[in-house]
Specification:
The protein is of the alpha/beta class. It has one domain: Rossmann fold (3-Layer(aba) Sandwich), CATH 3.40.50. Helices cover 43% and strands 15% of the residues. It has 8 helices and 7 strands; from the N terminus they run βαβαβαβαβαβαααβ. Strands 3-2-1-4-5-6-7 form a 7-stranded parallel beta sheet, sandwiched between helices. The protein is globular. It starts with 11 loop residues before the first strand and ends in a 7-residue tail after the last strand.
């Protein structure tokens, strides 16, 4: 049956930035579909792991900052998934930070911090995951969390726009290299979501109204809006999908 293709029973997923917001929703969506989940965040993921357990799935938490992660550390993260939960099948690169300032005044520290977390750490985890899957000849699923700013430039967020655009390009590049190994690399591009990242915009009544007027769905996205697409991309139903960047934006890009 086609519905069986969407089931993730027996799979193990790693979700970065899973303590709250989008990452937490992605982790729970995967658990609802049957996957066991390893969470990684600089903050405690106890709340997420408690909800994973309530769904009857196994969970394991890794607490550290991805800032400055190296290839060897990324390899250790993947091995920890295997050691703790017995296997490794799905990588969701969701962790990210944002810094706002005019490009003329943007600091080297803010530029490098955002690129390190949002792009470099994602690449090293992709690389470590793919090396594991190629070595074990099992294939796997990589889902990168890009952004509307993979398509647009935004305002006052040059490093974030660069990193998310880079992540979209990286998704396509890795898909080209790894599809023949049975590794699917795709990305989600969330629209304007009700998370900490958009808190300042939503608090500005004028700017918030202008944003909503552009969104055909006439509402901010919620983290749970991403559950369906991440389950699809992680499942056998997406086995022939490679290098796709899927907007989940309430219609923003079509306006």
């Amino acid at each position: 049956m086609i519905l069986d293709a969407f089931k993730l029973n027996g799979k193990v997923a790693l979700v970065t930035g899973a303590a709250q917001g989008l990452g937490q929703a992605l982790a729970l969506g995967l658990a609802e579909a049957g996957a066991d989940v390893v969470t990684l965040d600089r903050r405690s993921c106890d709340e997420t792991l408690q909800q994973v357990a309530l769904l009857g799935r196994r969970g394991h938490g890794l607490t550290f900052d991805l800032q400055g992660v190296t290839p060897s550390v990324a390899q250790e993260v993947i091995q920890e998934c295997v050691t703790q939960l017995g296997r490794f099948d799905i990588l969701v690169n969701n962790a990210g930070i944002i810094r706002r300032a005019a490009a003329l005044d943007f600091s080297q520290e803010d530029w490098e911090a955002v690129l390190n977390i949002n792009l470099s750490s994602a690449f090293y985890l992709c690389q470590a995951a793919a090396r594991f899957w190629v070595t074990t000849s099992q294939g796997g699923k990589i889902i990168n969390v890009a952004s509307m700013l993979a398509f647009q430039g935004g305002i006052l967020v040059p490093s974030y726009a660069a990193a998310k655009s880079g992540l979209a390009g990286l998704t396509r590049a890795l898909a080209n290299e790894w599809a023949s190994f049975g590794i699917n690399v795709n990305a989600i591009a969330p629209g304007y979501m009700a998370t900490d990242v958009t808190a300042a915009i939503r608090a500005d009544a004028g700017r918030s109204q202008a944003m909503l007027a552009r969104i055909p769905a006439n509402r901010w996205g919620e983290p749970a809006d991403l559950k369906g697409v991440v389950v699809f991309l992680a499942s056998a139903a997406a086995d022939y999908l490679h290098g796709a960047i899927i907007p989940v934006d309430g219609g923003w890009l079509s306006r």
